[in-house]
């Protein structure tokens, strides 16, 4: 029967009450049943203690039991261990010391004092009567004689930790089963093991802040863990950790304060791996272990069950394989680079050959050019001697020409002298003739002037006769006018008297004024009625406009604009009346100008708009923008603006096409979107451009359906879309420009559309407006009747006024006619007087007409006589001029003859001059040429001397051949020919040779580098093979052993399971992705399938997880293992079988320490003498008596069983 050792714990009660005493005494009701299969069930209850009522908690009982199992019929699954167990029991001393406390201990002992509770040994009904105390001693000694493995937990002490005040646990060396109801503090022990050994809370899956593990109301918490040391250690190492409320931590090892790294080094030395889920599996990380991927599972398995060098070999293989891949990639890149460079070299070979041929030609041309000065110097020297000879000959020829020219020169001089005298006489004669010609022109002008005077005299005579005829005709006309006017004056109207007529008119004016006053008073009484009628008519027109607006969507939106943003409505109305002030169109707010194409998307589209976007006015030019700004925001006191402030005006320069879509429709569909926001809204392109610029319509995704998780992540990480609306939720992603990786996701539900919704006009409101309109029309009719009634009262006044005005008009016309008659008589008298004066003037002007005619005729005759005399004189002077001109013409002919002779003489002499000048020029040119040749010769001589100093012997020899065999022209022709050849060879890439040689060097260096990499690759591959040959068999054996134990466990419950290693990559060389695959089969008809979180149920995964951990138990190299509530989700049958299997494996010899935490315990479970059960009791009904005699419970259980 298992022995139970109790460690007292003190917990703070959560229930406070008054100070009254309990009504019933403390009771303890044990319920213990014993059976053939060594089963133990303990239940304890107690009423609320007095101390609990006062706020002081009594310590709940924690019992620890080690179990030694004896069966009448051995279990077939444990046959292989029966002999070992018997042998072990036969060699074991059964007379161990009694560790139980005396039952006489003081009950008032402090609650935090450790209490050991003795429990009687289990025995079968067929056993002989054995003393209860002896059985307990034997059982305790059996458990205590099993040694702890190095690194196993010997003791755990907690103070002010989570729910514990003080508690001490003393785990056994094999299986430790910690049981108790939920919330009693089982997992707190797990937390204490993790934190007490220097690991962080992240390995617990619970609170991340270490300060949260300090019990409420305390400043510090203490965890002290004693570990089993090596045989050579004098004392076991003890780690103590103090946690403060502010989150700081201090460590002590064996009483000496140490840094955290010292604790970590000790854990590494003892191979304690709390961060390995295969060794340490707390309650909150069970699911994490079940979901642990195959690749990390292999690593955790190696850490838990293989020597450290196996995992190190695996890490080394991964590192070497990564290096191998890097080298192979580098080699492949180098091969490609060499192939590329060799292809380029091949392409350059023709350029290189052509450049080398070009260089040869250039060198040959250079040699020819260098030879040119020497050949030219030889030719120049020879040419200089020839020029000197030519110059001497030229001088002799020049002298001969001068001698031949002398006789001809004298003849020319004589002729020139004779011609000079004649020309002087002709000049004098020409001047005399010019004077003569001037005099003749003057005399001719006198004759012409007299002729003109004669014509004028005759014209004046004709005019005098014609004017007389006209005077007589005017006299007759004037007499006729006088007679007509005298007849008109015969009817004299007499003196004009208008007094009587004026009196009548004045009287009528008085009557009209009186009638008008009465009529004005009557009309004034009508003005209020007319104003009221006009007001009602205006109201009817406003109602008509409102009804028209409400019967269309745009009108509804304008009405909504008026209600929500009165200032924007004011600007919208003002724009309709002032369009002429703008060059382009100014668009109203989007809620008026735009519509949503599909009503189903109205809520999504409207959710994108901010207040400034809904009511924004859009200008398409900067001038219109400024005009609207001044008109809207200007001060209305001076009449320059509306004086508004809450109006948004925007100016857009970009066209809609300048806002590109972020994705095609197919891409958006693959991301889960129905389209972009711009696809669902229509309106003027300028307004849509403004919205794209303002709220990014072209970048916002829209979907009626909710995105899947993968679609949501794709949209979030795609970077192109920062906002979308899907499934009624608006999501925005904000990223900081300076930290693009830092992003904030904001989501909110969208509301119902307010402005874009399509609704029918409210019929009730329209009916009310129509009723109001009918009432106004009735009022107008009533006003019209009243106006008619009042008009009837003063209708006679209007008729009287019309009659008086007609009478006045007739009198005024009569007056006007009388005035016109008198005025016409006076006007005719004036005209008659003027006409009589005109007749008198005409008759007086006709006197002396005959004398004037005679005088004019005599004047004309005198002019005619003067003209004849002047003409005769002019004819005589012309004859004198002709004689003088003839003499001059004869002399000119002689001068022409002499000039012709002189020209002949000069022409003949010019040939001599030309010959002379030509010869002079020739001599001068030969002289200058000789000087130039001498200078050129000296220059070439100096150049040749300087060039010779730079030539090699070979060049000197070749130049000497050119000097002796070729002329300058031949040499230049050859140079030109070679240059033509050079031009025929295109230069192409001028750097081809340099590139070719540099690339050759680069290829060689790259090949050397590849050889080095190949050597490194061979070295790495050799190392991989060496390490793999050492590692792979060990990992295969390890996984094989795990698979064998795993399979046996599954066979134990009638199922099948296996563990295999999955070797990835070509030839299994992708060591990074080697993995462990767990294969299970829970039903007969199924095949073995890989264990996944999707394929198997939660209970099946739990069973598989437990069996895998159990398979590791016999192989584990860790000193202890912790599993918290792994049996959750299992059905009772599997839980019972798994418990039995776990007890068998965990209690074998030479296995590591094992902690199994569970909140439930089925009845009729199997136990083992190596296991130790820790029962944690906590609650209001725990007995105050912390020292309990379990023998009484066992006896009571036997009696109960016997009675049954």
From TrEMBL:
Family: Belongs to the SMC family. SMC5 subfamily.
Ranges of Low complexity composition bias in the record: 1-17
Organism: Arthrobotrys conoides
Keywords: Coiled coil
A biological process term (GO) from this entry: double-strand break repair via homologous recombination
Region (Disordered): 1-116
Gene Ontology cellular-component annotations: nucleus; Smc5-Smc6 complex
Source domain of life: Eukaryota
InterPro entries in UniProt: P-loop_NTPase (IPR027417), RecF/RecN/SMC_N (IPR003395)
Compositionally skewed regions (Polar residues) per UniProt: 28-41
UniProt-recorded name of the protein: Structural maintenance of chromosomes protein 5
Residue stretches making up the RecF/RecN/SMC N-terminal domain: 153-1158
Ranges annotated as biased composition (Basic and acidic residues): 88-102
PANTHER family tied to this protein: STRUCTURAL MAINTENANCE OF CHROMOSOMES PROTEIN 5
Regions annotated as coiled coil: 331-358, 398-518, 766-828, 909-1030
Molecular function (Gene Ontology), one example: single-stranded DNA binding
